[in-house]
Every structure is written in structure tokens, then in C-alpha cells.
Write a structure and sequence with these properties.
Layout: H1 2-5, H2 16-39, H3 43-63, H4 67-78, H5 83-90
Length: 98
């Protein structure tokens, strides 16, 4: 991985909790699309959900814009997610061992 990624510039460490939240959102949407298509036969609804996943993944890959992370921040600001959740991941260097 380092062989290809080193040409993109220095690594940018980000907190883990927002990324795990975004991954969970992606997993829920994927399962929902599968249920829509396979169990309910709602192929149009499945297509809409999958298109949404593609757009959000493209935003993350191309522009480093993580919508799931933004939603996580908004929920934290509203108090739906305890602030302590992100305090533990705010210092990305703390959990790393040399």
C-alpha cells in the first residue's frame, strides 16, 4: 500500500469513530438495497440506494469529503452522540505505537 500511496503526499490521520460511523452507514444502505431487490422485488428502490452509495463513495475517494463523518459531527453537536466518543479519537497519535 505504501508503494502506491506515497505518491499522493503525506498520510493524513483522521479520527476513527467518524469513519466507523460512515462505514456502518454504508453497510446499512447495502443491506437495505439487498433486501429491497432480493426480498421485496423493489429494484427501483434498490437502484436509488446503490446510486446514493456510489455518489457518496466517489465524494470520499475523489474529494476527501466524507458525508458520514459530517453527519457524525452534526449528531455530536446536537448531543445525540456523546462528546466523549470523539474525545478518545481526537488525538490520533495517542493510540499509535512506534
Amino acid at each position: 500500500m505504501y508503494v502506491t500511496s506515497r505518491h499522493l503526499g503525506p498520510a493524513k490521520h483522521v479520527p476513527g469513530a467518524p469513519k466507523r460511523f460512515a462505514q456502518g452507514m454504508g453497510a446499512v444502505c447495502t443491506v437495505a438495497a439487498a433486501i429491497f431487490a432480493l426480498a421485496l422485488g423493489w429494484t427501483a428502490a434498490a437502484g436509488v440506494v446503490l446510486a446514493m452509495i456510489v455518489v457518496l463513495a466517489t465524494l470520499e475517494a475523489a474529494f476527501a469529503l466524507c458525508i458520514g463523518c459530517r453527519i457524525f459531527a452534526m449528531l455530536t453537536a446536537l448531543g445525540a452522540i456523546p462528546a466523549a466518543t470523539c474525545e478518545t479519537c481526537a488525538d490520533v497519535g495517542a493510540a499509535r505505537t512506534p
